[in-house]
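--- STAGE predict ---
source: upstream dedup step, 1 unique chain passed
mode: sequence only
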Amino acid sequence: MSRLWFFVALWLCMAASFLCLGRSKAAGTAAGAAGLEIQAPGPGEGFLRVPINANPPTLDPTFVVTVVADGIDRRIFNTLVRHSPDESGRSLAIKPDLAESFECSDGGRLYTFRLRPGVKFHTGREVVARDVKWSLERLIFPDGYERLFELDRILGAQEFREAARKWRASLPPGDSVYADWSAAGLGVEGIRAPDKRTVEIELREPFAPFLSLMALTPAAVLPKEEVLRRKSDFGRFPIGTGPFRVAAHEPNSHILLERFDGYFEGPARLKGIFYRVVKENSVALQEYRAGRFDLSPVPMGMLREIKSDPSLSGELSETSGLSTAYLGFNMESGPAAGNVHLRRAMAFAVDREYLCSAILDGAAVPAKGVLPPGIPAYDPELKGQRYDPDAARRELEAAGFPEGKGLPPLRLYYRADGEGRLVCHAIQMQLRRAGIAVDLRPLEWGTFLARTRRGECPIFRLAWVADYPHPHNFLHTLFHSLLAGETNRTRTRDPDIDRLADAALQETDPAKSAELYRAAERRVLELAPWVVLYHGKTNLLIKRYVRGIRGRVTPLDVDTVLPGVDFHKVEMSPDFACAVDR
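--- STAGE serialize ---
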């Protein structure tokens, strides 16, 4: 034993607590919280070892904005319902989670959930209906999560937000996110807890994707007393109801989850999950080869090589996802804001086939429109955006810049990671051939998200990963005028898009609704606030002894965190020679 671990053991004995591989039995009092070094679990110790490519800004589900945080939180928290795949892993349906049953009545306006009995938070306290009410109200509170704006459809939600805003202004200076509005007599009229196991949610009008909203991570059920007590530290050591709880968290280094034996579906088969931040996928692959990770992303440009390597090809998992990568234009300011011909010229100048085959090595498929395959209303016959150098030249001339003359360099912002760098450099070369000069501006992920939301990036490269499998989550969420400056980062404001998206949501005939969404998509492509690029795939390497992941990756899963996979059922084969999942 090293001297460091000798003193760690001595400290833990003095504190009368238990530590195993750097894990504390008391949630939120882990060695990581004390700043102590955590030793990574080794192979065969019952921990799934997973690389993550970025440090999650927070694990507080109310404020989750990244895929990494979403995937980790899925292990820590539960929602009323969840998207559950069938045996094929492809078809997704809404199934009970914390609710043992649910029903919809009053013409689609009233949802009633019956909670499972005996569900416990990691602290041991039983979950009751008022926990659900408070957690959902926290999302509606003025500082709540930007992507659950649809909760405004709940009866009294808008009135609550306005009253909460006034009440917050009356408070002494401080962090109002951790002030208790319920103690001030505020609440949402349409969220009710008539008894300890019943939750009623009444909408102002029917909203077909509502249950999908209740399955999203930000709708997780939280213990109010722990949120208010821990304040900002709740985002680092959150308390939930899930099969795992946080044992250690060292930002920009690692997060260790341990099994929660009081989980309502029984203890997980894994002892825990060890996430380590490795920003470069090539490094993660090296660690995977060396036996220090059980999962690995496939680095850019290496898919074909891995498929031809007998030692790795049998460990490869490929799944088409529900995502669309794009170049976005700020429609309020910048050289492309008032010039649709310039935006169209750029759309015609991008060779998506080249990006997918040569740059992404087959790890994505070219996009023609906003909706990815697998989303209802996807139109396989859509002509959409395409590579056409002659059309790019004509549009550039119509924009007032024949052959690019008089056009100053355009600033393109992107996340400073491997994929963003390679794709944006390739796009820069393609646009240059069309006469469009581009200056590339890489940014750290958190800074990039903040600046695009504030409208500070004239052109940016981003991707949207579906929250739930419905066209509303693309065509309304990303382009509706009401959401300009929020999820609508291009600040598109177009009455035709708004009208079509709103009408599609109210249409009860699925075929007619699909046609309205398709018309909205065609209008988006006509305006060109996006240059659509490609729809991504999830390509992973999974060790042969890991059971319960391969074949169960869903279209909603991306990266190594796999938010749609039920890690409660994942296990390590006792026979490390096991070649396939059973």
